Amino acid sequence: MSKAERLADLLRSNEAKLLPAWTGTVSAGLRGRLSPAECQRDLTGLFRVLVTALEAGSSDVGAEAFAETRALLEELTRVRAGQGFSPRETCLAVFALKDAVLDAAGDDVAVYQDFPALSRLVDDLGLLAFETFVAAREQIIIDQADQLLELSTPVVKLWDGVVAVPLVGTLDSARTQVVMEKLLQALVDTGSAHAIIDITGVPAVDTQVAQHLLKTVAAARLMGADCLISGIRPQIAQTIVGLGIEFGDIRTKATMADALLSTLRAVGVTVERAQPRGDR
Amino acid sequence: MQQIPVLRVGDALLVSIQIDLEDVTAVELQAALADRIVETGARGVLIDISALEIVDSFIGRMLASIAAVARVLDTETVVVGMRPAVAITMVELGLSLTGVRTALDVERGLALLRAAGAGA
Questions:
Q1: Interface membership of B71 toward A (CB under 8 Å)
Q2: Does A18 share its domain with A117?
């Protein structure tokens, strides 16, 4: 009988004791976030494919016989990662099998002879679970970054021939590229000759961010549109001067209102109050 | 080899680039345009590049140099209809066409020339 087959035999013959013990440890560690029934269903499925794989005669997790085990474990881990479980909670589900086997063994010395092999197998499965967990989390982060990119760059039409981009959040090369493309496309689509870039929502301006802004303005100019930068907060104005950033002949305004007023004048629209302020 | 037509519209010359510019064609255009400016005494030049999809550093530099030649001949140049992708490429190449006026389309370009007292 090979080592793998002995392990399969050990697991199979103790199934009645092992499964409840394993499920118990795991669901206790999850503190009720997953119902015991659900937990039992997942672990029983995993247990069955694991025994089947061992019966095929190999205890190497990378082997062909373990394909189903790996697939099931990866699926379970991905679901847990998506549900916001911690890595410890996710991997404990695998490692707890060792404790369950030790408890079930009791005084049976024959079990200890095979235990190192089982331990190694469980460790490999645990590592696989951890790798899958990290990969799943990274995928979530990438997806969220993409969603942020879509969310944060609207181009607003303020007036006939005037468009504005209210920038929110930190500017990096990727976002600037998206902003630039969207703004320039909006200029073409709406036939606007005036654009306002509002940076009220940009937390900090460093040389790199300034560089990105300058590029956007230069590109808009090349297309024949006049571009203003507004929403420069006092401390940002100080940072810009402190860093020695030259905005050149690009016009900047403190608030979007100032920028809009100035742009409307350029378009030829006069804005006045219906009643002089003093009459009220 | 293809030649870019130079049309006369009132006091201005209209150059409409409808094909992807090759280096030789651009050089020819600069020479032909200089000749036409002197010949017609035009006060303004409109270069319509709305059909131009690809710009490399050479073509970008040629646009600037055509404008510079026109300026020496006391003619205002307006580049109109640059596509967003082309504008981004030009900025990334570090070509900001300083001294060249730009407009969104031919109509606005003509209005710009007229306002500057140079157009049709």
A1: no
A2: yes
Domain boundaries, position B77: 6-115
pLDDT averaged over every residue in chain B: 87
Cα(A24)–Cα(A35) distance, rounded to whole angstroms?
11
Q: How many domains does chain B have?
A: 1
User: Using one digit for the tens of pLDDT, what is the confidence trace for B40-73?
Assistant: 988 899 999 988 888 888 888 888 888 889 888 8
**Sign of the C-alpha dihedral, residues A18, A24, A25, A27?**
positive
Give this prediction's pTM: 0.66
ipTM score for this prediction: 0.80
Q: Do A118 and A218 belong to one domain?
A: no
Using CA coordinates, name the residue in chain A closest to B84. Answer: A184
Domain residues for the domain of A142 are 3-148
Residue B1 located in a structural domain: no
Q: Kindly report the nearest CA distance between residue A264 and chain B, in angstroms.
A: 17
Q: Do B83 and A219 touch (CB under 8 A)?
A: no
Cβ contact B84–A187 (<8 Å): yes
CA distance A61 to B23: 61
Record the tokens describing residue A192, joined without a space.
């606007």
